[in-house]
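Structure ticket #2291
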Amino acid sequence: MKIGLRKLIGCVVALGIALSVYSQAIQETPETMRLTLKEAQEYALQHNKTVQNSGLAVTEAQKKVWEAASAGLPQVNATLDYQNMLGFKMELFGQSIALEPTSSLQVQVTQLLFNGSYWIGLRMSRLGKNIAETSKLQSELDIKQQAQTAYLSILVAEENKKILEMNLENINTLAKTTADMVKAGVAEQTDADQMRVQAGAVMNGIKSIERAIEMAYNLMRFHLGVDMNTEIILTETLNDLMNSGSAEETLTTAFDVNANYNMQLIDKQIELANSQVRLQQASTLPTVAMFYNYTHKLKASTFDMSPNNIIGIQASIPIFASGQRYSKIQQAKIQRESAQNNRELVSNQLLMQEKQLRFSLNNAIETMNLQKETLEVSQRVFDSVTRKYSQGVASSLDVTTANTGLLQAQSNYTTAMMDVINAKTELEKLLNAL
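Resolution: structure written out below.
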């Protein structure tokens, strides 16, 4: 019985240890994320710290609106006091009157009746909330663009790696053929050495690309706001992204400068400047408030003439400030005029940027088409030189030159595709269509 019990306890302990180790292994296993470009952008919008801070700024602005509004609502304050004259006696009409300790509870209710600055300040706080919301939209556009740039960088780097790996395979095949030709006496050792050096250069290029890919993935993890150990698998290719939306359609999309978030922020800054002028002008108006005081005598003195209830209205009227208020009004008007000038400047800059981005996209499309033709020609040249080399008509130098030209053409075409997508993204961002 004791032996069986010990075995049972041992099995339970072993099972507990095994489950603990298994649970820890699960926790340490890096998470795997499979993402399309849109999924990556949406995930970044939800988890990126910059966007989260923009959302917090909107929430803070909402609290400030309530803070400004509450200043015009009833205010209630209570005061509890205790006074002891330490046996002091007051002489009155030849009699000595001892002042006893007193204690009271006072409740005061105040209500603002009129204050021009209050209503303007409330409007300014609402404008501040609108600015925070527009800034959040602008931040979301920036994060979507950054996520897309990181996504494309990974795709381009991986595509270049595939190109180099295919090229290395071709070079290795030619190197083996060359070695056989050297053994047969129909080729020289320098030809084999040339192929070996070419293969080594391509291998170094592959290693360099692998490091660039890892850096691109780390940048993607940063934009997504995930742990650096998270494994990310991209499920779209450059061709998928090229076919997902026509760049030519983007070129024909009209641009409304007033819909741009930068212009909207400038317009709200002008509204704030106008409100600032009104705020300074309102400082010349009176402030009227009503109050009610109730005092409950917890311990009253024998000589007490203060009433328990007091109600009244208080008006504060600014009369003369030696030109200070006038100077502040003029400063606010100058700032408003400066904001209006900035609007015209930003509008011109956005219109100029639109033309430049359309030109860049159109030029990128033309360059991509040209690089595609160049790639096709380079591929035909390489195939032809390879056949001639196998027949002993071309030299190893000819093969190396044709291979270098093919690699450059493949890289240029991949880069041209990325340039088209990036130029399209830049224009879509300006159009608020990203």
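Closing remark: The first strand starts at residue 32 and ends at 35.
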